[in-house]
Amino acid sequence: MTAPLVALTDQSLGWGGRLVLTGVTLQVAAGERIALLGRSGVGKSTLLAALHDRIAGRAALVPQDHGLVGSLSVFHNIWMGVLDDFGTPRNLRTLIWPARAERARVEHVLDIVGLSGLGRRPVSQLSGGQRQRVALGRALLRGGDVVLGDEPVTALDPAQGAALLGRLTTEFATMILTLHDVDQALRVATRIIGLRQGAVVIDAAAADLSETELLALYR
């Protein structure tokens, strides 16, 4: 039997000394596309962080706050996705004078996320939607076994969001995302985990769930 990528067994999870979720037991297998659903504050981000901390293997993360450095360029923020692939001398050189091949790698990603030609622009000059696409670009450049995203397309229009979620499904074998849009979750996920009142109340294949069942999480 293949070992899961990550597993939680009867875990209590929280942050800042505040308990958010109790009795969480679940496993994530390679190849799953999981959507975490529930009301704001129910613990989706807490659960995502716990899974990220326990992932075995290379993982790319798209945090809700984007995790960008405003004073640095788009290029350098995207290149952060692969900093741990290189030593300090290489990273210092790239900070000052990126090589042509490095710029080409990033420009390819910028094309994918719709930010072509903006590699030299400081992130502080970007809109919210552009910043979100930089965070997505950083994850795409990093690559890996799994991508985890905390509302990764919430600042994008529906068409852009759908296109980039589709791109994530082709670039990563496994995906775990918190989402706020039930229809979006049903389209992209193979499995949905629903949270309510501090616990996992739904854990089922997306094909077995209806929009009505999922909307009940928000009442």
UniProtKB/TrEMBL annotation:
Pfam family membership, one: ABC_tran
Keyword Cell membrane: no
InterPro entries per UniProt: AAA+_ATPase, ABC_transporter-like_ATP-bd, ABC_transporter-like_CS, ABC_transpr_LolD-like, P-loop_NTPase
Keyword line: ATP-binding, Nucleotide-binding
Domain ABC transporter: 6-219
Listed GO MF terms: ATP binding
Listed name of the protein: ATP-binding cassette domain-containing protein
